[in-house]
Design brief:
By secondary structure, the protein is an alpha/beta fold. It has 2 domains: 101 residues, Rossmann fold (3-Layer(aba) Sandwich), CATH 3.40.50; 155 residues, Rossmann fold (3-Layer(aba) Sandwich). The protein contains 12 helices and 9 strands. The strands form 2 sheets. A 5-stranded parallel beta sheet has the order 7-6-5-8-9. Helix 4 links the parallel strand 3 and strand 4. Helix 5 packs across helix 6, helix 5 crosses helix 12 and helix 6 runs parallel beside helix 7. It is globular, with a radius of gyration of 19 Å. It binds phosphoric acid mono(formamide)ester (CP) and norvaline. Phosphoric acid mono(formamide)ester (CP) binds next to helix 2. The site of phosphoric acid mono(formamide)ester has 9 residues, from helix 2. InterPro entries: Asp/Orn_carbamoyltranf_P-bd, Asp/Orn_carbamoylTrfase, Asp/Orn_carbamoylTrfase_sf, Asp_carbamoyltransf_Asp/Orn-bd, Orn/put_carbamltrans, OTCase_ArgI. This is Ornithine carbamoyltransferase. It comes from Amaricoccus solimangrovi. Reversibly catalyzes the transfer of the carbamoyl group from carbamoyl phosphate (CP) to the N(epsilon) atom of ornithine (ORN) to produce L-citrulline. It is found in: Cytoplasm.
């Protein structure tokens, strides 16, 4: 039994194996209608619980459709409608769900909730985003980069804006897949030092640059995300926006990179805030390929967890 909790705690060769499997499954499906079962049905007879304590479109739909394509059943559970939202502990929830389902994915707030769930579950647990990380997203991002440009190893990725949960997973990925990462954002929103240290410890370059135009010079990929994550207080909005506004990804910033520099955003995007329409809908943007690849990456992660 294997949990998929974070990129830095999963062996690099396993991460690569998951991406190879995702690519093979994607190509085997081709243009098949979304509801058509895969030729192989590795999740036949299995039930997957998807717990959401925060909103979701991509994570919810990719896991749900992905599990079904592989022959599995799914239960989409909202934390607030479970006893979990009314005082039952996460440990007891883990013990109970393990008696009913074969795999649990959770999107939650504190990382400790995810870890406690994994510690007490007797079935695999997948991190569908916490305040601290979003590993499933970055598996899809690496897959997308490589589909467009070949191996990501040795490339330069520039994260622009808030050094948040998604940025932390990008740093973990930098270490595991061997690419350099430059963070361009205000000091107040620097990425988690432990994530940067992990990447540096693996021998890749992690740089912090306050000037976004200088940061993106020579970039192979520019990535940004919302300026106000789901775990951030609404009351912080004004201050965050003020500090982050100089880090908007707009055409000027893209022009400071190379003509073939790709743009990614995990979505949902706040158009005209962290990114302009021109960039989102421009020729360098691969955001919808990135969204689609959530499906293929999630399917491979579920198979890896279950060893099927
Ligand atoms: N990128 C992502 O995780 O999207 P959702 O919040 O819609 O799941
Ligand atoms: N950083 C964002 C990502 C959403 C997919 C959040 O945590 O809200």
């Amino acid at each position: 039994m294997r949990h998929f909790l974070d990129l830095h705690t999963t062996p690099a060769e396993d991460l690569r194996g998951i991406l190879d499997l995702a690519r093979a499954m994607k190509s085997a499906r081709g243009e098949a209608p979304k509801g058509r079962p895969d030729a192989e049905q590795p999740l036949a007879g299995r039930v997957v619980a998807l717990i959401f304590e925060k909103p979701s479109t991509r994570t919810r739909v990719s896991f749900d459709v992905g599990a079904r394509q592989m022959g599995g059943e799914t239960l989409v559970l909202s934390g607030g409608e479970m006893q979990l939202g009314h005082g039952e502990t996460i440990a007891d929830t883990a013990r109970v769900l393990s008696r009913f389902v074969d795999l649990i994915m959770i999107r939650t707030f504190e990382e400790t909730t995810l870890l406690e769930l994994a510690e007490n579950a007797t079935v695999p647990v997948i991190n569908g985003l916490t305040d601290a990380s979003h590993p499933c997203q970055i598996m899809a991002d690496v897959m997308t980069y490589e589909e467009h440009r070949g191996p990501i190893a040795g490339r330069k990725v520039v994260w622009v804006g808030d050094g948040n949960n998604v940025c932390a997973s990008f740093l973990h990925a930098a270490g595991q897949f061997g690419f350099d990462l430059t963070f361009a954002g205000p000091r107040e929103f620097d990425p988690a030092p432990a994530a940067a240290d992990f990447a540096r410890g693996k021998g890749v370059k992690v740089e912090i640059e306050r000037d976004p135009a200088r940061a993106v010079r020579g970039a192979d990929l520019i990535v940004t995300d919302t300026w106000l994550s789901m775990h951030d207080a609404q009351s912080a909005r004004e201050r965050r926006y003020k500090l982050l506004r100089p880090y908007q990804v707009n055409q000027n910033l893209m022009d400071a990179a190379r003509p073939d520099t790709l743009f990614m955003h995990c979505l949902p995007a706040h158009r005209s805030e962290e990114v302009t329409n021109k960039v989102m809908d421009g020729p360098n943007s691969v955001v919808f390929d990135e969204a689609e690849n959530r499906l293929h990456a999630q399917k491979a992660i579920m198979r890896w967890c279950l060893g099927v």
